[in-house]
Amino acid sequence: MAGIIQDKSKAHVYLSAAAHQAYEHFQQGQRLIEQADVFYSRQGVPPDDVRAIIEEIEDMRTRIPLFTAAGFVRDREVRSFGDRSFEVVFTPGHADGHICFFFHDEGLLLAGDHILPYIPPSLSPNIFDETSQPLAGYLTSLAAIEQLPITCAHPGHGTSFGGVVERIDEIREHHALKKELLFKILNDKPKSVFGITGEILGTAGAARDDWEKFMALNETYVYLQELKREETVIETASDGVLLYRRCPR
User: Fold this and answer.
1) What domain range includes position 83?
2) 212 — alpha (psi -120 to 50), left (phi > 0) or beta?
3) Residue 57: helix, strand or coil by DSSP?
4) CATH number of the domain residue 109 falls in
5) For residue range 182-225, what is the model confidence (pLDDT) as tens digits?
């Protein structure tokens, strides 16, 4: 979208440094493909399915128009838009470089994909940084937004809504339940992300398209990383594939 707006209006584009890094990764073509191959193969994904994932990533690349960044915004800095001012709030989670804009005078939040009215935003790994913790970062970002006196949120998808604190509680509960469900699937037998995702999807997985399977795989990985961070799951490796099992009681 930034590239389209800049092309049509010659506008200056400002974004977070993390968002610009992600943009640069998507422009690296062959390196991006090679990194995706390595990352998803390490999750136990069979070669044919890895190729399907790479096709999805390449499709995303074609839908990101080129743009030139004029500079980077800083967390909690205040900027002006016409006769209005707004605060930049870094909200990593849905993407490492995600940001929201909060208009203090009106109590309005431009929420992007951080808080949506009907569904929780998807969380995906940073394939260039396996130390990234998308769920932990997202929950921390929710806590930051929760402290703002928001009267109305304008999301990137769906209709504008109030009751932001209540919506945040619902999203937290969603992630807690999904994490609990995944933990129940684990036992003392090591399993790959691909294998665990297959168990979660069950027979319904056959009816899912490649994009839905890709997103489900990413979500499984994100929850496993959070469980590992909480020290309830152990991560090991065998033949280059990451495996997960419950920690001994």
Assistant:
1) 74-184
2) alpha
3) helix
4) 3.60.15.10
5) 999 999 999 999 999 999 998 776 678 888 999 999 999 999 99
